[in-house]
User: Fold this.
Amino acid sequence: MHKLFDLHGRVALVTGANTGLGQALAIALATAGADIAVAGRTDPVETARQVHALGRRFHAISANLAHGAPAMDVVQQAVAALGPLDILVNNAGTIHRADALDVTEDAWDAVMDTNLRSAFFLSQAAARHMLGGAGGSGRGGKIINIASLLSFQGGIRVPAYTASKSGLAGLTRALATEWAAHGINVNAIAPGYFATNNTAALRSDAVREPQILARIPAGRWGQPDDLAGAAVFLASRASDYVHGVVLPVDGGWLAR
Assistant:
């Protein structure tokens, strides 16, 4: 049974992996055996250290996904460094908190470009490679999008973020139905309320933080490594017949 979850010999590309959820996702895949490429604006020093400590290869790619970093170039850099790409995790994301009446076009575009546009074009580039192009193996692969509870709900004062994450859930289903027959699994994880940089403002809000905590059946905020099992499952042979799923990892939030 353990071989179903074994990622040895696989190469994964994870975006936004210098801290928080992305770092935890990269380490989870490395723990299962995958070699790791990461793409983002910040040097992922600690992520590199932990991946190397697991005996896995690691390569960092400098890419500003908020400003349309060429997706195929990012994929090709990962392939050149580590070999054919098997797994893509679209984790890079940003959030802008403001009343809907005050959201500017620039703020809207920044969120949509990072959270949705980059995920599509990286998925497109990865799929072309996984189908045999750009030095690919032609053996298919796994694409995992990091969605959100706000792929299902409206949220408060985050209209661009909600729109982007709702769009990402729809994109996950659209790509899954198109690529399933070609051996590419496209699925998503929808984290609940996790203790990360993105939620620092909420966790320090004396009103909102206890309201949120009281709404989580598990009785606590998620920790980044709570995503490890879901990520390895969706990246491994164990999920070969799973397509187009948006899997909540939320402490029971949506079940309540």
